[in-house]
Design a protein that fits this description.
By secondary structure, the protein is an alpha+beta fold. It has a domain at 40-118. The protein is 17% helix and 30% strand. The chain contains two helices and seven strands. The protein has helices at residues 19-34, 59-63, and strands at 47-49, 66-70, 73-75, 78-82, 87-96, 102-108, 111-115. The strands form two sheets. A four-stranded antiparallel sheet has the order 1-4-5-6, with no helix packed on it. Strands 3-2-7 form a three-stranded antiparallel sheet. β5 (87-96) and β6 (102-108) form a beta hairpin. It is globular. The protein starts with 18 loop residues before the first helix and ends in a 12-residue tail after the last strand. InterPro entries: DUF3297 (IPR021724). Residues 31-41 have a biased composition (Polar residues). Residues 29-49 are annotated as: Disordered. This is Glutathione peroxidase.
């Protein structure tokens, strides 16, 4: 709103906080600094691959380190995963295809993913 007589806006007045409001504000700020917020960027994507030629490749997300739990076991040999469809793709031994890429097999089961850089209490993406 705009005051026609003085030419000043109603929102130009300085903010006055009572002592009770200051205490509530300080408490809410201390709570925010102690507990990290869970946002969409805190959980890995639904589908991610380590092959740069894949449309699901994302170097920035892979740099953070993604942990994968498949059927209750933490796996470190996952080439690609999809949480919503419930599968992981892992390398099948040392076998290579004719282009020099590792042969992979698709395993079905429950998949959970999290960013390892957030520590042990990181939010987990699962179905």
């Amino acid at each position: 709103m705009f005051d026609r007589l003085t030419g000043a806006g109603l929102y130009d007045a300085p903010l006055r906080l009572t002592s009770g409001a200051i205490k509530i504000f300080a408490r809410s700020m201390s709570d925010e600094t102690n507990q990290p917020e869970t946002t969409g960027s805190d959980v890995p994507p639904d589908h991610l691959a380590i092959n740069p030629r894949s449309p699901y490749f994302d170097a920035d997300k892979l740099r953070r380190g993604v942990g994968i739990r498949f059927k209750g076991v933490v796996r470190n040999n996952v080439e690609e995963y999809c949480i919503s469809e419930g599968w992981v793709r892992v390398q099948a031994g040392k076998t290579m295809d004719r282009k020099g890429n590792p042969l992979t097999i698709k395993l079905n089961g429950p998949v959970e993913a999290w960013y390892e850089d957030l520590g042990p209490d990181a939010p987990v993406a699962k179905v």
